[in-house]
């Protein structure tokens, strides 16, 4: 059983690494650029030349998916990373401060956490603008709270641990204790959280694309490609098939990885 | 016997179905106050439950131009005098509202007073600005309505005095905002939204129910002066998503998809017998920002126009747009089939900095402008930055631009993409946009000669002479000063069941159900 | 207990108040206003429009006015759906969304429960592998893609279900399945995990020793323990169903409340944006509160703090 889990997770991790590599190396893998139009080769079905076919401007869908990976994974990872870092700092400071400040800070977090985040995301997107920055802000603004909660919980636990007490009595500075002794404790659950946040963010981005508030061109993300494909799914199935497939498999991989990480890192479920 | 009964029931069900027409409105934010209605969906509903002094042809007899001739409706005839400045409309007698009250000329006066009154908050008051004193009344400069040139001479005669001859005036009185109102009933219209069947109207149909978010049901008006229409019930559904609407049509749950066919399916649909297409009076165009470099120089504007091949950009639209180099669209006098600034091969324009273009539109426009972007880059090494913004944001920006209230530091893009839909089928509706007094002229360009040509054309009764004036003015706009670049005219693309007769794709996007009947 | 409930209620009100405030100021800072249209309006007309909706006041005054109105249950008139009151629009469309949501939730619980139990019962079977794959994969697909696949299979290919609208029970099947798929997957995962955990517990071993069949153990002893974790998931499920309803109601042309939200945002219909946000915010916060209370009631060890 254990072996099997690790096996799945390994495949998932390999796949994510592979996709990331492809995204980074996109210009060297495909000789089509994501924006190369070819008026005589529009809406072609998959072939040896165009592995995933072409879209209505004759652009190679495979290259668009590769470059789309940069946008989608970029948005997914950076927002999740930002949320994790900001959330960790916020949560641990709050726990460390304790008392009224802690109660106040966590009250803010609780409130943000219980808001219908997608509604705010849509509004923030319009305020900031339909670029990568807009999506980043819109998703990150509400995304950090879960990390903050986890971090706070861990710090509260760690504060009571004997070696932290000892470090305190030795007169080590607060920051030093936080970084040296407490942070390593927080990391595992935050990492698990991170691996679930990334696919969530990729999905949020595709939701925004669907309601017409996604990235404006020239950016193309998996979400916007899937949305374009959805509008043509009855006539040109390849346009929906490939974006949906890659979106699906990638999110699946992150989920599997997250599950495995949780099992591996969470001492409670490793009985 | 049983079989016979069943067969009979089946036939009865069929004939019952045949008196129902199911039409798709993309939404149901219907404004029932016709003085204030101006969105497409509201106009479709109101054009069928109400009527004005004039209307448009409703059956296919000759060519498209026939649809654009105003025909007598509530006015049975009219006379023009004093060099085309005074209209006298003779109202049809024995026309009754659905509550039995007879139509009187005063009801038009009431309506037009209400339309012009700034308190009504109508976006349509400009329709009557050609009437003497009307504009001043709307702007609040004149509070006395008796100074506005609208009068009921008796119960059946309406006199309208214009401030100048306006050859297109008969079109304006076919617009929903000028339909008569019942002042005695209007105070309680607001409460009528929930019981629409009590709405008093006089058109070929009356509103019988409105299930919010789902559909509006129109029933034939038996007392309509022109006789009850053939289709007894029209159901206007509110299906927002084109793909869903198309699927419902295929599933035989809709009979007419008037617009917004799914772009990707059009090539396939266009081969079918139930696909109909026709011209619309709507032109999309690029406006240059003539206030600052690079397009403050006419050479750059002309070169830009010559560097673009419109036909290239068309591939994104699958036939819903056609290329045009004329600002006055085909079908109207003044249309020029051959633009003089034809695209040139090779490098035509050289600009040092990339230019920006702002627009609001869906994915199809995105595709089209990405083709533009590519062709500019490849042929001319000119960078084009596309700024797609949401519709309200775009128009918020435009109105700030027009009223000079743009926040400091906000840059005006070098090019704006816009489209203009004719208010009335006359060249003036287009040419007026770029006169210096126009609020829709965002170019920053003014030309006294252009103004005077458009002005002279309006007050010229002779058709040929008018057309010549417009041609001259258009030459200034497009060739001499190259202020705008017309791109496309829009086409209707609709799916209509083949057993429906009398469906007219009106170039003004008007839908009259009264003319539709089923093939016997 | 009672003061605790009071405190919870108070924090619910506070959350809603913060939500109203954030949404109000956010939407007012979105560029473009409700009356920006294709034609430039005469200044007098535009001024009258602004006055009639109170938009000529400074934003903070509009804000206090709005909050006071809302306290009296007055959400104001819609700007886009002219002549209709936002409260009335909500009253008309909410029942439909609620029905859709409850059906989807019910389906998700039943389906998720079935899948979860089956996969826990036959731990090493193909079925178990399939359920875990299914539950992870349902979480990995945006709902509009799922809707497309379902419509294609059941309407276009098989032609056995209507593609849209909310009329007969048959037209409800596809939207409910689409909307409930994600929650179902979440429930299935949770049930499976919690069953697997409790199957290893001591009392299960005792029961086995007593010679009870595996099925009886599963149903009688373990499932009861899974009830609490599923309950705690409820808030998340409701959030998911709300988000999903925006897409599902639009695609399937359902006259519910969800489809108003994007519509209201794109037309800058401020009162409608506020109305929809507040109702959904309330649904979310209240479901979390209910979960807390139910928890305390079912499991006396947990004190709500």
Shape designation of chain A: elongated
The CATH top-level class label of chain A: Mainly Alpha
Q: Which secondary-structure class do the elements of chain C indicate?
A: mainly alpha
Q: Describe the global form of chain C.
A: flat
Largest interface: B-C, 54 and 49 residues
The fold-level CATH name of the domain at 86-298 in chain C is MetI-like fold
Classified in CATH, the superfamily of the domain at 86-298 in chain C is MetI-like
CATH class of the domain at 86-298 in chain C: Mainly Alpha
Helix content of chain A: over 70%
In oligomeric terms, what are we looking at? heterotrimer
Span of the ends, CA to CA of chain A? 13 Å
Parts with pLDDT < 50 across at least 5 consecutive residues of chain A: none
The helix-strand sequence of chain A is: HHHHHHHHHHH
Major β-sheet profile of chain C: none
**Estimated structural class of chain A:** mainly alpha
Q: Give me the number of helical elements of chain C.
A: 11
Question: Hey, roughly how much beta strand do the residues of chain A contain?
Answer: under 5%
């Amino acid at each position: 059983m254990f072996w099997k889990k690790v096996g799945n997770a390994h495949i998932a991790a390999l796949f994510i690494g592979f996709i990331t590599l492809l995204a980074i190396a996109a210009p060297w893998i495909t000789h089509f650029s994501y924006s190369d139009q070819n008026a005589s080769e529009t809406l072609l079905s998959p072939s040896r030349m165009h592995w995933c076919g072409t879209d209505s401007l004759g652009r190679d869908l495979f290259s668009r998916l590769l470059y789309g990976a940069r946008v989608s994974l970029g948005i997914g990872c950076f927002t999740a990373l930002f949320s994790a870092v900001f959330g960790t700092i916020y949560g641990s400071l709050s726990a460390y401060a304790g008392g009224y400040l802690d109660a106040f800070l966590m009250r803010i977090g609780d409130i943000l956490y219980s808001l219908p985040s997608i509604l705010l995301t849509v509004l923030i997107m319009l305020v900031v603008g339909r670029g990568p920055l807009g999506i980043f802000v819109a998703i990150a603004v509400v995304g950090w709270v879960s990390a903050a909660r986890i971090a706070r919980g861990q710090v509260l636990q760690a504060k009571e641990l004997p070696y932290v007490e000892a470090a305190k009595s030795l007169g080590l500075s607060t920051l030093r204790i936080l970084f040296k002794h407490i942070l390593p404790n927080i990391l595992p659950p935050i990492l698990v959280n991170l691996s679930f946040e990334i696919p969530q963010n990729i999905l949020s981005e595709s939701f925004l694309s669907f309601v017409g508030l996604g990235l404006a061109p020239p950016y193309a993300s998996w979400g916007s490609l899937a949305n374009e494909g959805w509008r043509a799914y009855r006539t040109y199935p390849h346009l929906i098939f490939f974006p949906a497939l890659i979106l699906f498999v990638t999110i699946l991989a992150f989920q599997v990885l997250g599950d495995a990480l949780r099992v591996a890192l969470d001492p409670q479920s490793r009985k | 016997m049983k079989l016979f009964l069943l067969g009979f029931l089946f036939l009865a069900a069929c004939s019952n179905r045949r008196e129902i027409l199911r039409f798709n409105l993309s939404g149901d934010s219907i404004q029932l106050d016709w003085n204030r209605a101006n969105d497409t969906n509201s106009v479709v509903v109101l054009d069928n439950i109400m009527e004005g002094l004039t209307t448009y042809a409703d059956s296919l007899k000759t060519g498209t131009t026939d649809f654009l001739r105003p025909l007598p409706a509530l006015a049975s005839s009219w006379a023009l005098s004093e060099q085309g400045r005074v209209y006298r409309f003779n109202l049809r007698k024995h026309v009754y509202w659905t509550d039995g009250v007879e139509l009187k000329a005063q009801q038009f006066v009431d309506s037009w007073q209400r339309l012009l009154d700034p308190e009504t908050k109508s976006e349509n008051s400009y329709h009557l600005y050609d009437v003497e004193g009307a504009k001043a009344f709307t702007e609040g400069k004149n509070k006395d309505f008796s100074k506005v040139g609208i009068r009921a001479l008796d119960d059946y005669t309406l006199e309208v005095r214009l401030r100048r001859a306006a050859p297109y005036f008969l079109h304006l009185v076919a617009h929903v905002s000028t339909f008569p109102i019942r002042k005695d009933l209007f105070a309680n219209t607001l409460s009528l939204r929930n019981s629409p069947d009590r709405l008093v109207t006089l058109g070929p149909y009356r509103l019988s129910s409105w299930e919010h978010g789902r559909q509006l049901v129109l029933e034939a008006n038996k007392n309509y002066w022109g006789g009850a229409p053939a289709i007894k019930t029209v159901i206007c559904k509110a299906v927002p998503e084109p793909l869903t609407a198309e699927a419902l049509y295929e599933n035989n749950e809709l009979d007419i998809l008037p617009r917004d066919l799914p772009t990707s399916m059009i090539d396939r649909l266009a081969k079918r017998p139930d696909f109909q297409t026709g011209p619309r009076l709507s032109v999309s165009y690029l406006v240059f920002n003539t206030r600052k470099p690079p397009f403050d120089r006419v050479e750059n504007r002309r070169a830009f126009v010559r560097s673009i091949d419109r036909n290239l950009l068309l591939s994104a639209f699958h036939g819903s747009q056609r290329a045009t180099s004329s600002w006055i669209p085909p079908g109207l006098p003044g249309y020029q089939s051959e633009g003089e600034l034809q695209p040139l091969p090779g490098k035509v324009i050289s600009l040092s900095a990339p230019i920006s273009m702002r627009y609001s539109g869906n994915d199809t426009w995105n595709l089209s402008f990405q083709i533009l972007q590519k062709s500019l880059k490849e042929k001319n090494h000119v960078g084009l930055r596309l700024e797609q913004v949401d519709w309200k944001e775009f128009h918020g920006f435009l109105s700030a631009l027009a009223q000079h209230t743009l926040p400091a530091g906000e840059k005006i893009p070098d090019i704006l993409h816009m489209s203009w839909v004719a208010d009335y089928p006359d060249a003036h509706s287009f040419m007026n946009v770029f006169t210096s007094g126009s609020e829709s002229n965002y170019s920053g360009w003014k030309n006294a000669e252009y103004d005077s040509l458009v002005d002279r054309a309006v007050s010229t009764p002779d058709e040929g002479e008018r057309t010549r004036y417009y041609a001259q003015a258009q030459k200034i706009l497009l060739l001499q000063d190259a202020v705008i670049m017309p791109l496309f005219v829009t086409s209707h693309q609709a799916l209509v069941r083949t057993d429906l007769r009398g469906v007219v794709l009106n170039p003004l996007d008007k839908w009259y159900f009264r003319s539709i009947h089923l093939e016997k | 207990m009672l003061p605790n409930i009071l405190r919870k209620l108070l924090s619910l009100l506070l959350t809603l108040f913060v939500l109203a405030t954030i949404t109000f100021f956010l939407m007012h800072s979105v560029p473009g206003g409700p009356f920006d249209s294709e034609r430039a309006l005469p200044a007098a007309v535009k001024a009258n429009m602004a006055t009639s909706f109170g938009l000529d006041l400074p934003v903070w005054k509009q804000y206090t006015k709005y909050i006071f109105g809302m306290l009296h249950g007055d959400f104001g008139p819609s700007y886009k759906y002219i002549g209709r009151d936002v409260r009335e629009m909500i009253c008309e469309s909410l029942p439909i969304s609620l029905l859709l949501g409850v059906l989807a939730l019910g389906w998700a619980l039943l389906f998720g429960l079935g899948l979860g139990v089956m996969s826990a019962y036959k731990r090493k079977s193909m079925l178990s592998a399939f359920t875990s794959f299914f539950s992870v994969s349902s979480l990995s697909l945006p709902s509009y893609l799922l809707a497309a696949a379902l419509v294609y299979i059941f309407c276009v290919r098989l032609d056995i279900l209507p593609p849209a609208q909310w009329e007969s029970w048959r037209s409800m099947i596809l939207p409910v399945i689409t909307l409930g798929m994600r929650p179902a997957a979440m429930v299935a995962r949770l049930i499976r995990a919690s069953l697997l955990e409790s199957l290893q517990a001591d009392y299960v071993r005792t029961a086995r020793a007593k010679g009870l069949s595996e099925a009886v153990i599963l149903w009688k002893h373990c499932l009861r323990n899974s009830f609490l974790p599923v309950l705690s998931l409820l808030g998340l499920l409701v959030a998911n169903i709300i988000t999903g309803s925006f897409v599902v109601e639009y695609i399937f042309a359902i006259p519910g409340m969800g489809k108003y939200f994007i519509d209201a945002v794109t037309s800058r219909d401020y009162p409608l944006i506020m109305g929809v946000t507040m109702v959904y915010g309330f649904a979310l916060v209240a479901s979390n509160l209910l979960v807390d209370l139910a928890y305390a009631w079912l499991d006396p060890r947990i004190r709500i703090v």
